[in-house]
Give the backbone structure.
Amino acid sequence: MYPNDGFRELDRHECLRLLAQAPVGRIVHTRQALPAVLPVNFCLDQDGAVLLRTSAASELAGAIDGAVVAFEADEVDAAAHSGWSVVVTGGAMVVTDPAEQKRLARTGPRSWVASPDEIFVRIEPELVTGRELVAGRTLYGVDLDHSG
């Protein structure tokens, strides 16, 4: 990003604060050697890890357990030409520790589509990046307000 390209880089703390407010994100993983993107509800754990809750029999659970994935969430205001996007990249693991499963059953995300055999997936936040679109001018001096 260029210093005046209309975007502002977000630090890790800002990224995690914004993620905590988002109700839905997207998990990016590999399916049959191709990129796959799925919307999911989630929450953040105390250490900033992304937590998902899904059916143990789901294709998603099998595809991401032990894999490096990306997780993205954003908020956009098209009218104001502003918004933000945060990406967390890290290893995804199905939570298998019984004590941790019990804790997450109380504090973790709630399924929007519940199933009888649910599991929790934890994405370790190894790389956290984000940027905010700042309404106004771009690096090239172009006014984004086309009304005038």
